[in-house]
Amino acid sequence: MSETWYLHGSGRKTRQQWAELREHAGACTASWADHLGFHQEGLSAELPATTHLWAWADRWWLRVRIDHDHWWAALLTEGNSAQLWENPEPIDPPTITEFCNWGENEREVRQYQGAPGVRGRDDMLQLVPLRQTTAIFIGETATTATRS
After folding, report:
1. Which residues pair with 113 in a beta bridge?
2. I want to staple 61 with a disulfide (CB 3.0 to 4.6 A). Which of 75, 87, 93, 137 is the partner?
3. Distance CA 74, CA 134 (A)
């Protein structure tokens, strides 16, 4: 029997509240693009200068929308072990598909200066909750044993 999936929402948060998210998600892998290029590393200490950020760890996936001094986050979890925000909503399991991370020759991420082996990874997942108002979450295949 598989676990119930949950969708958690942060509501509107300020730049000063970024440390709260980092405290809970600081050990996860995060991915975003900013004026310095494409990043796939730990969650940044400061609110990054980007519009979207994705992060993941075992059995949970985070999507953050950033608008200058404010951010909103949605957290998708397999099971209800995360206690970041109150009243998570139980949802049907998401559609999960594998995809290839930015290829080595992708022009859009030419500026990437991070750890080797990030570009061209073929062990990435896209998770789409079965709701009209929810966008995709991303993570690594090792973060879940569930496939749909």
Report:
1. none
2. 137
3. 9
